[in-house]
Write a structure and sequence with these properties.
The protein is mainly beta. The chain has no helices and 21 strands. The protein has strands at 2-5, 13-18, 20-21, 25-31, 49-52, 56-60, 65-72, 79-87, 106-112, 118-124, 138-149, 160-161, 167-173, 180-183, 187-191, 198-206, 215-225, 236-238, 248-253, 260-268, 276-294. Strands 1, 2, 4, 15, 17, 18, 19 and 21 form an eight-stranded mixed β-sheet that branches. A five-stranded mixed β-sheet has the order 6-13-11-8-9, with no helix packed on it. It starts with a strand and ends in an 11-residue tail after the last strand.
Length: 305
């Protein structure tokens, strides 16, 4: 939210900016170290249901590259599937690059090997986006189509498009929206430590521009927890607080030189035979104001926006 106060010509006014949140959620994919590759390709078996790992892939214009993850709930066979990107407010070839050309829809075909349950696609974020005026997040729509056996695979092994996250949104956040908090990724992948072990990793909360000495009370709350209202990644289960990871919450306070502050997450090993598991990080309650001088207008009386 932004409010601007301007005054009569010849006087100096001020702009009051309130801090908000662009990226609210992050999903952590916790890879189990104790599970078996139980499936083997064979006649009449199922190549699996294919889905996007999350329903929203959010990147910043300054990232350079984003990563989209497609998963399946089977380890059987070598199977191909088309990933399709359709322009929205984000345009292929201008704001991002997807597929062999700049068409819309654009198709990128990926291949799952036998025993492989996820494939990552690199999506270059175009520098051209950076020179545009400040704007809301740009978006494009992602979908899955035409699962089929790869060349040389048993033709009986045919996958399907899953019912969980069959589509997803690609979001590109504007780096010039200087007063909006973001999580630096929409997902992280980490691996359980060995039996009895504990490990930590960090996710980062960012501001495109550090608060100035005219900022006041710039902060945002975070929570590390399992939200069971979220659909898990296909082939995954919900992580258990206190057994798979340590739940946490707190407040990050941004000072005049801070553009990124970490959240440290602790992962444990529960020594159980289990599927991969998901848990979440959430931002809320953005606080703070920034007052900036505005040069006087050239003439006349101005209103408010």
């Amino acid at each position: 939210m932004r409010s601007v106060r301007l005054s009569l010509a010849g006087q100096r006014g001020s702009s009051l900016f309130k801090f908000g949140i662009s990226g609210l959620w992050l999903t952590v994919f916790l890879l189990s170290t104790i599970h078996s590759n139980y499936a083997q390709a064979g006649p009449g078996t199922n190549g699996g249901a294919f889905s996007f790992a999350v329903n929203k892939f959010a990147f910043s214009e300054k990232d350079g590259n984003g990563v989209i993850v497609v998963t399946r709930d089977s380890e059987v066979g070598m199977v191909m599937i088309d990933v399709v990107a359709k322009n929205g407010t984000a345009t292929n070839g201008i704001d991002f690059t997807f597929g062999p050309n700049t068409n819309s829809p654009a198709t990128n075909t990926i291949t799952f090997s036998n025993l492989q349950t996820s494939v990552s696609i690199s999506v270059p974020i175009k520098a051209a986006s950076v020179i545009t005026n400040p704007h809301p997040a740009l978006t494009a729509t992602l979908s899955l189509a035409n699962p089929r056996p790869a060349l040389g695979e048993n033709p009986a092994i045919i996958g399907t498009v899953g019912t969980r996250n069959p589509t997803a949104q690609l979001q590109i956040f504007d780096v010039k929206r200087t007063n909006e908090f973001n999580l630096d990724k929409s997902y992280y992948t980490t691996t359980e430590p060995g039996p009895g072990g504990v490990t930590t990793f960090q996710v980062n909360v960012t501001l495109p521009q550090a608060p100035t000495d005219k900022s006041s009370g710039v902060s945002v709350d975070y929570q590390v927890f399992t939200d069971r209202s979220f659909t898990t990644k296909p082939g995954s289960d919900y992580a258990t607080e206190g057994e798979d990871y340590l739940a946490d919450s707190g407040t990050l306070n941004f000072g005049p030189n801070d553009t990124s502050l970490p959240i440290t997450i602790t992962v444990t090993n529960d020594t159980l035979l289990e599927f991969n598991e998901d848990f979440h990080v959430k931002l809320s309650n953005a606080q703070g104001t920034l007052t900036m001088d505005v040069p006087p207008p050239s003439g006349g009386t101005t209103g408010s926006t």
